[in-house]
Amino acid sequence: MLLGNDLDVQVVVLDVYELEIGEPRADFDQEVAAAEAWARDGHMPDIAPARELYRHFGIDPTRYRPSSEALLRRVLRGEHLPRVNSLVDVANVVSLRLQVPIGLYDLALVQGSLTLRLGRDGESYTGIRKEQVNVAGRICVADDAGPCGNPSADSARTMITTATERAAWLFFLPVAERDLRWTYELVARFGRGLVRLP
Predict the structure, then answer these.
(1) 81 and 32 in contact (C-beta within 8 Å)?
(2) Which residues touch 47 (CB under 8 Å, ≥6 apart)?
(3) pTM to 2 decimals?
(4) Domain boundaries defined on the chain
(5) Tens digit of pLDDT for each residue in 61-78?
């Protein structure tokens, strides 16, 4: 599962395994509500690092928003975080709170190894909501079959479902040790999985 990094970018990759992913959990509702209230009360972390990641590669972050900022804007509009499944819901809360884009990849669906690189001319993939995501010249995660994610949107091909047993969790920016510990705890409690650094 090693994630090769062809770019001068600091990322954190977690190997999440022995997962028992289920439908959105009622006992996670309180965590979701607390994260939404926290953001609406103005306790927002700095969105600049994620934007700077995009600008580093000549990408306008107000045109192609980091997924973390997209979640924040959604909440500030009065909408709720999307509820997908027990692991994705944890990732959305963590991403909102830390303002760090997160990628999730079902390792049973990944072909070969994951690599962080720039998209090549004409490269794209089908996003989770069926839209075509163009990654030419943009930072992306790819396997032997091609791109399968970026800091804005993951692909349908490698997305997390209730059948996922092992996943790669990618923070597209460095995170503090305390935030990693918090992530481990949420994954263990609500995603019913274990986490290790590969």
Answers:
(1) yes
(2) 66, 68, 69, 72, 99
(3) 0.95
(4) 3-110+155-196
(5) 999 999 999 999 999 999
